[in-house]
Design brief:
There is one protein chain. The protein is of the alpha/beta class and about 280 residues long. It is built from 8 helices and 11 strands. It has a single domain, classed as Rossmann fold (3-Layer(aba) Sandwich). It has helices at about 65-85, 105-110, 120-130, 160-170, 185-190, 210-220, 235-245, 255-270, and strands at about 5-15, 20-30, 35, 95, 115-120, 135, 145-150, 170-180, 205, 220-230, 275-285. The two termini are about 20 Å apart. The relative contact order is 0.14.
């Protein structure tokens, strides 16, 4: 993020969901940004998403986990709309970058907003097209965007500097970028360490701290206006982390209880400033 080349190994973890391969996470000596290193080449990363349990690319609601995820996603959708409402004046379009199967686009349309999406996954994009215009690349999006949302997408982006430059070409001055990312400084991240599910290597190539977000966004003319906690994420991440830590193929009742306990503890310790995931509201000046 800052241009420094010196780093140190922080965590050695595993792609628990798909390949079972080991990956290293390094930390920049200067700005503290964390990143997967070395990382899979971008044109070879596709197979690491090919997991039926990669739930953000499906509308799966089978089983207790799937039904719980969809229920919590519904709560989060309403909250996300409220965050957009706080900054959207109606002068432009809302772009959901990495829109998945389109649930947030559907919510935007229902709230009366002009919206569109970008999604590189073909199957997810086809599902999202039911709710409006969805493109495979930011290059297809016209100017006039007032708000861009990225719900757990920023950590997947390889060339983030190029993407932010493309955003600026399309954003209205005074527009907003709202980005949700996992927080590697949270209590649950430190508790689970190498088993923390939100490392999600290798598809997560960046692991943002609040400081590295400020460093990155400041280089592109974005100022941090607000940080919003995502307290429901701690339960979901802790549940998965318990499963990974136990090395079990399937989740069991112990994972649910222990995950709920650690998730709640993480929220108590993190309060509103250091939760499992954070939403950054950034203004384009």
């Amino acid at each position: 993020m800052c241009g420094e080349t010196d780093s140190e190994l922080t965590v050695n973890t595993v792609d628990y969901s798909t390949s079972k391969e080991c990956f290293d996470i390094h930390k920049c000596i200067k700005c503290g940004h964390l990143y997967t290193n070395p990382r899979i080449k971008e044109d070879s990363i596709g197979p690491y998403y090919d997991n039926p349990d990669y739930i953000s690319h499906t509308n799966e609601n089978k089983g207790l986990f799937g039904r719980t995820y969809q229920f919590l996603r519904g709560i989060n959708l309403r909250r996300k709309i409220s965050y957009v409402d706080q900054v959207f004046s109606g002068k432009g379009t809302v772009l959901d970058y990495g829109c998945g199967t389109g649930q947030f686009l559907e919510a935007l349309v229902a709230s009366g907003k002009k919206s569109l999406g970008v999604e590189i996954n073909q199957n997810a994009r086809k599902a999202a097209e039911r709710f409006g215009s969805v493109y495979s690349s930011i290059n297809e999006v016209d100017k006039g965007v007032e708000v861009i949302t990225m719900w757990h997408v920023l950590e997947h982006v390889y060339d983030i500097h190029r993407l932010l430059s493309e955003f600026k070409k399309r954003m209205l001055k005074g527009g907003y970028l709202i980005a949700a990312v996992p927080n590697p400084q949270s209590y649950d991240a430190k508790h689970y360490n190498e088993f923390w599910a939100a490392w999600d290597v290798p598809i997560h190539v960046h692991h943002y701290t609040e400081n590295s977000i400020k460093t990155l966004m400041g280089q592109h003319g974005f100022s941090l206006e607000k940080v919003i906690p995502m307290k429901l994420d701690s339960y979901y991440i802790s549940l998965l982390s318990e499963q990974y830590k136990s090395k079990k193929e399937k989740r069991n009742i112990k994972h649910w209880f222990r995950g709920a306990y650690v998730g709640a503890l993480s929220n108590v310790k993190g309060k509103n400033t250091n939760t499992s995931s954070k939403i950054y509201v950034l203004k384009y000046n």
